[in-house]
Amino acid sequence: MPPWLRLLKMAFHAPFREKLGWRxxxxxxxxxxxxxxxxxxxxxxxRYLAMMDIGRFDxxxxxxxxGLVWREKLKPVVASALVRFxxxxxxxxxxxxxxxxxxxxxKWLFIEHRIESRGDLYCHAVVKALLLGRAGGWPTAELLxxxxxxxxxxxxxxxxxxxxxxxxxxxx
Length: 172
Fold this sequence. Notes:
InterPro entries: HotDog_dom_sf, THEM6_lcsJ_thioesterase. This protein is of the alpha+beta class. The protein has five helices and six strands. Helix content is 31%, strand content 31%.
């Protein structure tokens, strides 16, 4: 099934699924189809990232900030990703994508994605994303306020702060 069709299917079903809180986890189940495969006959690395996009959209819809994105004409943008592939997903294998917000600062949201099957972790990733408006990045404080979430301005696990610092060396 192509990613755009999976996205449409998720978008249709999301409003009927349980609402999620700011820190709750979205869980979606998929199957590896032949068009997901690479030359090694396992799921293509890029397809993992496409699936994670769908997980973030499900999270946005079910957490309630998709409406804000629509009203304010914001664009969800991923700036970077830290991805670890642990096992290969085979043709027709089912898997679960788990997505949740694990941290934020004044500008960025950090969203964790876990792809699991048969009780094993296949891929673990964290993406650094923001909501982009006409005037630039939408402040995280505005997002939290719009969701009526009482939370500190910044909440980043220590290991994530180290990744962010290391990422600073990539600027060129």
